[in-house]
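Title: Prediction job returns without error message
Component: structure pipeline
Severity: low
Priority: P3
Assignee: unassigned

Description:
Job completed but the reporter wants confirmation the result is attached to the right record. Sequence as submitted:
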Amino acid sequence: MKDNTLTGTGKFLIGGLNLNADKAKKMQEFCRQNDIRKISVFGSRARGDYKRDSDIDFLVKFKKTKGLLELLSMEFELENIFGKKVEIITEGSVPVFLKNAIMEEAVPIL
């Protein structure tokens, strides 16, 4: 199901992420503070074949370019929200040979 978005209420599953109202609110604030235009989950979480210790892969499109230290800081912040290892990849940095696969399985959050 690829039509899920954050509403800030209730509890729901998006791309393998179990979001309650608190996490949804934190994600909305995170996206606002970091000028995120679009954020999606891809990889094992989006496919549904993740394990308990699987990381969370986020595909992000920003309103303006971010540097490496900013991206690392954002990964750390997301790890605190979800309690899991997180990796962020920007739409512009997806390797050409992986782009189609990642874009097909990506589940939008915002």
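Comment from assignee: result matches the submitted record. Residues 6-108 form a domain with the Beta Polymerase; domain 2 fold (CATH 3.30.460.10).
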